[in-house]
């Protein structure tokens, strides 16, 4: 029985069929999917929980009468029996990661994580992006150790997404640090293809080195240089999906003159190589 069939079953129907899963969360589908032209889903209901993450492209995502326009990095969550559709925008590629799961007989308090919301936030250039793709890679590997890795990654993703969701919900819109942070973030996005020095960011923001590092880490969860690495990783993924460039050419485009240094960095940060990431892209 394939995983698409498992993901359509009721939770109790899957237990006993899933190999190597002996306790919750039970993951019945974890894949990265590249939608063909004119692909769409209309008014579907699932019997399990679903995380839907946009890797590339744009799609409208109606859930229970409310429509979310999703773009790269957006993470959506819907619950069993919630009617939803996925409607990619015409003439745009749409690549997504879908995680379908349940907790068996456990009354897991999902509402404490996300209340009744569906849109959890944008996680482009965020560790959650790489945790999701790492989960997909591990899910395709046989053996108990890989299944346990998947479960650990899923629980980390739910925890980190909940933390970010609550932080965003309680954030003050007039935070005086935001203009400087936006300047630094935009600068990193504009210059990821070359070496960026911390002194450049100090001059740009007008902050001292210590204040810059403290404030950036406080609001972004990582240092500016770590954030630059995440940008490069996600740009590399985009190029792998959208172009026919070689890995060496991709490495150069994202600021690495040596492909081996790029490869070690990518695997260290994501848990898999760029070629593994591409190999897990499913075409319908």
From TrEMBL:
GO terms for molecular function: DNA-binding transcription factor activity; sequence-specific DNA binding. PROSITE patterns: HTH_ARAC_FAMILY_1, HTH_ARAC_FAMILY_2. It comes from the Bacteria. InterPro entries: AraC-bd, Homeodomain-like_sf, HTH-like, HTH_AraC, HTH_AraC-typ_CS. The keyword tRNA processing does not apply. Keywords: DNA-binding, Transcription, Transcription regulation. SUPFAM superfamilies: Homeodomain-like, Regulatory protein AraC. Residues 182-280 form the HTH araC/xylS-type domain. This is AraC-type DNA-binding protein. It comes from Paenibacillus catalpae. The lineage of its organism: Bacteria, Bacillati, Bacillota, Bacilli, Bacillales.
């Amino acid at each position: 029985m394939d995983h698409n069939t498992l993901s359509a079953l009721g939770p109790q129907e899957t237990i006993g069929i899933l190999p190597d899963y002996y306790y919750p969360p039970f993951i019945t589908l974890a894949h990265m999917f590249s939608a063909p032209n004119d692909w769409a889903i209309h008014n579907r209901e699932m019997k399990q929980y679903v995380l839907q993450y946009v890797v590339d492209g744009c799609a409208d995502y109606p859930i229970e009468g409310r429509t979310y326009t999703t773009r790269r990095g957006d993470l959506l969550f819907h619950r069993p029996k919630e009617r939803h559709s996925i409607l990619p925008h015409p003439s745009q590629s749409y690549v997504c990661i879908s995680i379908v799961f349940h907790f068996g007989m456990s009354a897991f308090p999902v509402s404490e994580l996300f209340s009744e919301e569906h849109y959890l936030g944008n996680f482009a250039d965020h560790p959650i992006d790489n945790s999701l793709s790492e989960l997909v890679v591990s899910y395709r590997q046989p053996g108990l150790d890989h299944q346990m890795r998947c479960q650990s990654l899923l629980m980390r993703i739910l925890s980190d997404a909940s933390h970010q969701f609550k932080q965003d919900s309680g954030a003050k819109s007039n935070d005086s640090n935001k203009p400087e942070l936006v300047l630094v973030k935009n600068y990193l996005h504009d210059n990821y293809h070359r070496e960026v020095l911390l002194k450049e960011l100090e001059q740009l923001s007008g902050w001292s080195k210590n204040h810059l590092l403290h404030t950036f880490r406080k609001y972004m969860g990582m240092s500016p240089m770590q954030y630059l690495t995440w940008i490069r990783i996600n740009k590399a993924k985009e190029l792998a999906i959208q172009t026919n460039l070689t890995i060496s050419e991709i490495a150069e485009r994202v600021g690495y003159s040596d492909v081996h240094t790029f490869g070690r960095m990518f695997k260290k940060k994501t848990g898999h190589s760029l070629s593994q990431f591409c190999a897990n892209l499913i075409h319908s």
